[in-house]
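Researcher: Let's do a round of design. I'm pasting the structure tokens now; please hold your answer until I've finished.
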């Protein structure tokens, strides 16, 4: 068996073309989706992510603005800026690039963003709405994973999904989203004592631990769908996931590559959430 690739960049490009047309239609009604990204400091990885988001906004017609602040910016100043944006009708989405400097509370920043503009899907209110099946902005990486699986025509209902990792950004919410799609979900983490026994039962295996080549083929059930969320840089500079890709290719039915797998879908779902926010904020004007 040779696994079929789930090419996130191709799925993302298709979705972005659809979004571009949607934004054009909204603009004819006087609605221009607006996203403001705030970054503190000059971390190279964060700068790269921000540039990617700006380019993606530009291509689909979203009004993307970048606010760059010094790393030493006081937390009170950042919270004040967020409050201004919460009350700015031209801004439909607010994203503060993580990680933050040590003197700023990530929790305080996330909770300061209005749930109605929380296009990252990190606010506790949006997480609660997601948990209870209400209308919410879904966290972008988990949302992108679900969309990738659906794009391949894979039925989720009834599948056993095993998640390796329990972060608030990926592990926990992706399990909830699979549960919302009627899958049976098992979590594995650093305290799991029988991980191989769990993972070899998985119809869909999601690996999000941030450790290069952590999972080999002995952890994978033949014919399983493998979603590799990890992005790790080797000593030679090459990117690799959390899964031993060549080994997994021999046993899985589908697998996401690294790069060009889950990553492009994360930004795509951020764009989706921003457009959705613009539509929701103008529903009283008859926008569907």
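Researcher: That's everything. Go ahead.
Model: Designed sequence:
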């Amino acid at each position: 068996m040779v696994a079929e690739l789930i090419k996130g960049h191709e799925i993302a490009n298709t979705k972005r073309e659809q979004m571009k047309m949607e934004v054009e239609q909204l603009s004819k009604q006087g609605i221009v989706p607006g996203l403001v990204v705030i970054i503190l400091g000059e971390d190279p990885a964060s700068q790269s992510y921000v540039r990617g988001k700006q380019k993606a906004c530009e291509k689909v017609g979203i009004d993307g603005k970048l606010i760059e602040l010094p790393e030493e910016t006081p937390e009170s100043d950042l919270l004040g800026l967020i409050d201004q944006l919460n009350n700015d009708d031209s801004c439909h989405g607010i994203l503060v690039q993580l990680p933050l400097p040590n003197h700023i509370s990530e929790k305080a920043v996330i909770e300061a963003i209005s749930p109605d503009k929380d296009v990252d899907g990190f606010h506790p209110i949006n997480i609660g709405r997601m948990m209870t099946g209400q209308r919410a902005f879904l966290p972008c990486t988990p949302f992108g994973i679900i969309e990738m699986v659906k794009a391949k025509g894979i039925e989720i209902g009834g599948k056993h999904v095993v998640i390796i990792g329990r972060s608030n950004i990926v592990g926990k919410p992706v399990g909830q989203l699979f549960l919302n799609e009627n899958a049976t979900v098992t979590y594995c983490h650093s305290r799991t004592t029988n991980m191989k026994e769990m993972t070899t039962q998985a119809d869909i295996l999601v690996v999000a631990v941030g450790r290069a080549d952590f999972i080999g083929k002995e952890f994978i059930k033949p014919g399983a769908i493998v979603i590799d969320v990890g992005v790790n840089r080797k000593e030679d500079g090459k990117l690799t996931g959390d899964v031993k890709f060549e080994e997994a290719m021999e046993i899985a039915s589908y697998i996401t590559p690294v790069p060009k797998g889950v990553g492009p879908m994360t930004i795509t779902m951020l764009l989706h959430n921003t457009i959705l926010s613009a539509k929701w904020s103008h529903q009283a004007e008859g926008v569907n």
